[in-house]
Amino acid sequence: MSTIPKAILVPLVACLAGWMPSIAQAELKDYQIARLIMLKSGCQLSVLLRSVKADGSVAFTGKCKNATHYPDLIIVFCPDLDSNDERSCEIKTNKKSFDNLQLLQSQDE
Q1: Cα separation values, 92 from 16, 40, 77, 96, 104, Å
Q2: Where are the domains of the chain?
Q3: Long-range contacts of 63-68, Cβ-Cβ distance < 8 Å, separation of 24 or more
Q4: Count of alpha carbons within 13 Å of 17, Cβ hemisphere only?
Q5: Which of 40, 47, 80, 91 is within CB 3.0–4.6 Å of 63 for a Cys-Cys bond?
Q6: Which candidate, 93, 88, 81, 80, places its Cα nearest to that of 41?
């Protein structure tokens, strides 16, 4: 039975150790939250910021390009950062409507 020379074995083991998969942790990605905001609110994001709370929850704050219904900011709260599922997140900012603008339109229509 032949043995593998040490000069080949050591680099081989080091190389394989680098390829060993590490323990992966699920995490919400920014694109998932951007998609959630776009689909549920119609907001086209220009900026999205993430803030992680001490309890592991995450709050995302976004600024919309089209500030029609969200002129200030839109806030999304996710109770569990490690869930990797944006369906558990909810939009906390209420959609605004400007009913007074309808008074400016002509009444003929």
Answers
A1: 47, 12, 7, 12, 30
A2: 30-95
A3: 66/42, 68/42
A4: 6
A5: 47
A6: 93
pTM: 0.65
SS3 sequence, 12-70?
HHHHHHHHCCCCCCCCCCHHHHHHHHHHHHCCCEEEEEEEECCCCCEEEEEEECCCCCC
At 14 the pLDDT is 54
Instruction: Find tokens 């080091």 and name the residue.
Output: 14
Q: Is 70 exposed, middle or buried (0-12, 13-18, 19+ CB in 10 A)?
A: buried
In a 13 Å sphere around the CA of 13, the CA atoms on its Cβ side amount to 7
Where the chain has pLDDT below 70, the residues are: 1-26, 81-82, 101-109
Structure confidence at residue 64 (pLDDT): 92
